[in-house]
Amino acid sequence: MRQDSKSFEQKLWDYINSSRYTNWAPVPGKSDDFAEGGSPHGAFVKMYLNRTAAGNPKELPNGSIVVKENYGPEKKELMAITVMYRSKDYNPEAGDWYWVKYNTDGTVAKAPPEMQSMPLAGKPMGCIKCHGEAAAGGDFAFLNDDI
Fold this sequence. Notes:
With 147 residues, this protein is of the alpha+beta class. Helix content is 18%, strand content 22%. A hairpin with a 7-residue loop joins strand 1 (35-36) and strand 2 (44-49).
């Protein structure tokens, strides 16, 4: 029997693209246009929620996927795509979120050298720290802070 040699990150990339994430729902109460962003996500962002997340954005139950396209200051250059996927018992200390930052070609981005160039996938401390300290409600998500 042939084993699937793709990593979870590759499978997630394939899934969000084959399901045409750009047709997913915007954050409730927000337009599907650009929103002002900030480091490390880019000057502007576009966000998309899968059906599970859009169906209950306040709670973001297990199975929720949030895709954020990261753009430069001119809103023309897609710089990266960041994804949050909530999976029961994956990482309870961080809201059970799995984070990954993709380059535009679908490869996993790496942290800068001063952060040991670690792949930005799984449980990146930068994601956990920022989302844990600054997101309201203790759910590690910003998108539902004002819903």
